[in-house]
Amino acid sequence: MLGILYAALGAFTFALNNVAMRRGVVTGSVLQGMAMTVPLGGLTFLIIATAFGELGQLALFPAVAVAWLAGQGIVHFVFGRYCNYKSNQLMGVNLSAPVVQLQIVVAMVWAVLALHEIFTVLQALGSVLMLGGSFVTQRNAGGGRKALGSNAEPAFRPQIVSGYIFALGGALGYGTSPLMAREAFLAAPNLGTAAGGCIAYASATLSFALILFKPSSWADIRSTSRENLPWFLSGAVTVAISQAFVYASLAAAPLIVVTPILQLSLVFRLGLSQWINREHEVMNTPVIVGAFTAVAGSLLVSVPTDMLARWLDLPPALADLLSYRLAAG
Fold first, then answer.
1. CA 171 distance to own-chain centroid
2. Residues 268/277, Cβ–Cβ less than 8 Å
3. What is the pLDDT along the chain (329 residues), one digit of tens a residue?
4. Per-residue DSSP letter, 155
5. pTM score
């Protein structure tokens, strides 16, 4: 029960992070937000590793594991996060989130190709639902959200094409990084995940720091306004808290229980966006339908077929059909 609670809190705080960062990048830049979330994330993992007595394990990671973790940090915390925040800026959280959620499909494809895991009919159906949900949210989105009424100019006009490209980049980054982390811990099976997170964040921070050599980027970061500073700081804090809750949930409950609950983040984002960023988001029937369709698809992808068959007491013929292996690596 505690693992379920941690997973739900992880989903909620991650949604809160996306909404806070979305508010910050309305008038601020993605680089300004990244400059706070990446270093503070590393500091958070350093504190967690110290608290759990894992700091001494940093020197024990073999070179191959360090290489995988360093790459994972860059792919997830720099590339994936930048694309996610940029898509939020261009078309809002409500439109970008279902597309970024396709990270589950990306992770599943990598699992089949690289780890030789099984891909069933049920997971194929889930993938179709997720893709369908991400496309449904874009229907009638180009006109934006009306500020006062049907005759008023839209308060927010989403940039669909560029926003979609960055959202797909976020899905690619977030979906690829779990495979890299898994390869790292396969090479270092007895070492702590918090210590591994320190390595990943250190690599991400050093990689992100390279942009400081570009004068315009450094000037952009230094020009962060007082108005946006609280949103970026709250985004940095909430993403760190979210990651801590996810680690705690995985320590207290099986992955097959935690993963579906984490998909509730998409639903939380809708509610939080409507509450905090009402004037900076697109909210209509296609967005709601698409979001819940994407959640349903992600659940079908992440829940084992045999477990779903037992929960729903499916007829044997239907259970066998859904369990049919389309690919097995």
1. 8
2. no
3. 677 788 888 889 988 988 888 888 888 899 999 998 899 888 988 988 898 898 999 999 999 999 999 999 999 999 999 999 999 899 888 788 888 888 878 887 887 888 777 778 888 888 888 778 767 765 655 555 544 344 455 556 888 899 999 999 999 998 888 888 888 888 888 888 888 889 999 999 999 999 888 888 888 988 888 888 999 998 888 888 887 787 777 666 665 567 667 777 877 887 788 778 777 766 677 777 877 887 788 778 777 788 888 888 888 889 888 888 877 65
4. E
5. 0.81
